[in-house]
Amino acid sequence: MIASSFPVRFLTLSLAAGLSWCAGTAGAQTASPAGATVTTPAAAGPACPALLHQTFNRLQDEKPQDLCQYAGKVLLVVNTASYCGFTSQYEGLEALHAKYASKGLVVLGFPSNDFGQQEPGDNKQIADFCFNTYAVKFPMFAKTSVVGAQVNPLYVALAKATGKAPKWNFHKYLIDAKGLPVASYVSSTKPSDPALVDAIEKALSQR
Length: 207
Known about the structure:
By secondary structure, the protein is an alpha+beta fold.
């Protein structure tokens, strides 16, 4: 009798122990087949909106940059040029970036030679000009096209969403923290323009 009841008792104890282990660890950790403990990953950051599923080379070193790194930020996208009547706006754009970066604003610069051939240099020349002349620290990307047959996909999407494509250098698009374009500003709109600043502050307050 003792010998015949031992397997049943052993099985009962084993099942009880197994159920106790599962209850104590559910929702926190799981065991891999090799016995290693796998911790549930921490919550991810903001989801990347469709508009930012793009990669552009960085201006200074041409290293690819995924725009998804700016998910959850308010963005001011500007097509720039080094020899334009509006080139001095670099100073105001850098001031905006410095003032509001801690609150979630990022200015993104896209040099372009589309208008008046006013950005003739290569990426190194443009980078040197921006830093040495205006101490630009906000993200700048490699020379690109923002209109025409070679227009880059970000500008295709921005023009479609706002109904307005750039007509000259230093056109500005404001994108909210959800990745939605909310406003478009003509080249003559200064970075210090009250309407632009108010729109930026409103977008930041809604993050």
